[in-house]
Amino acid sequence: MRDLRVSVTDRCNFRCLYCLPETEEAADFYRSRLDGLRRADPSSQGATPIHRQWKPRSEILDFEEITRVVRVAVGLGIEKVRITGGEPLLRKGVEQLVGAIAAIPGVLDLAMTTNGALFAPVAAELRRAGLRRVSFSMDSLDRENFRRMTGRDGLTGVIEGLRQARELGFHPVKVNAVVIRGMNDHEIHDLVRFAVDEDLSLRFIEFMPLDSSRTWQRELVVPGREILHRLRERFELLPVDSSANPSETARRWRVAGGRGEVGIIAPVSEPFCGHCNRLRLTADGKLRTCLFSLDEHDLRPLLRGGGSDAELASHLRDRVRHKEAGHRIGQADFVQPQRSMSCIGG
Ligand code: SAM
Ligand code: SF4
């Protein structure tokens, strides 16, 4: 395990269809797509309202607790830390946490994933605090479609944020786009062109069953192979060698003659569980050894009950030994985790 993803809040200012949908429009989209398809998971009928999914503040780890877990995990071999959420920039003072984590010897790579809406005003401060890489989520370049997908009229803010990041020297500036059939798959070429023009590392991500409405259907997933095929109809793509990093989740290409990079992350159609090196810490202090774990391991009793670093390390080691062999999407016994991506930390 080399990569720790730290969720600093389970709250979010966006309502992405594939993560934390709330609007009637979102429900309508799914209903129209699902007509004639298999029915959605029956447990979606009683989905918990969003505000009731949020944990009370007292259950959320404070910065000292988070920094301690990261320090102990780094002592066990973690090298990369990504701050995420929910929307990490909603967490007050997150730049102080960035500074504290950046100062831990052994943290070789510190990054953040954000929806970008609140990034531009704090970008310089985050950079000064030691953040080096940032990934923005941007699924559409069409203002109206962006609003449909995220529940917010936020496209301009994200573009402003990612340009600001580039100017401040964050490198690479990544853009994540979750591709949903019938929703934004007609935009994949425009997104690539944008990445080339703006010198960005674009990642297309397959839609995973981690949405709070539990409406995910395989038919809505555009398999990585299809994305690649459709891109090749318009672009000459040159493979980027990633053999140096065996845990790389994306297959990557350069567009011939252009800047930036395009990657495809296909956890549903081409799982990479066998070489996964990631752990996740939720905002409320639960260790997750897989995005699709059905068990979470609560670190708070140790953190708040006087546990020593050695005990914490032993607990982490023990949990990692029992890491799942893989997700079971597509298998008859697959069960979607209780919490959505926004709570787990993507
Ligand atoms: N709020 C921040 C953001 O959107 O970038 C950080 C948290 S978000 C949960 C992290 C990443 O997870 C985003 O890039 C988002 O697109 C991705 N994500 C969320 N739900 C997903 C799903 N059901 N399938 C695939 N990716 C998903
Ligand atoms: Fe919020 Fe990120 Fe989930 Fe969108 S993907 S709802 S921005 S946590």
Explain this structure.
It contains 12 helices and 12 strands. Helix 3 (63-75) crosses helix 11 (309-321) and helix 5 packs parallel to helix 7. The chain has one domain (3-344): Alpha-Beta Barrel (TIM Barrel), CATH 3.20.20.70. With 346 residues, the chain is an alpha/beta fold. The protein has helices at 24-34, 50-53, 63-75, 94-102, 119-129, 143-150, 155-167, 188-198, 224-232, 300-304, 309-321, 341-344; strands spanning 3-7, 80-84, 109-114, 133-137, 173-179, 201-206, 237-239, 250-255, 261-265, 278-281, 286-288, 297-298. The structure holds S-adenosylmethionine and iron/sulfur cluster. S-adenosylmethionine binds next to strand 3, strand 5 and helix 12.
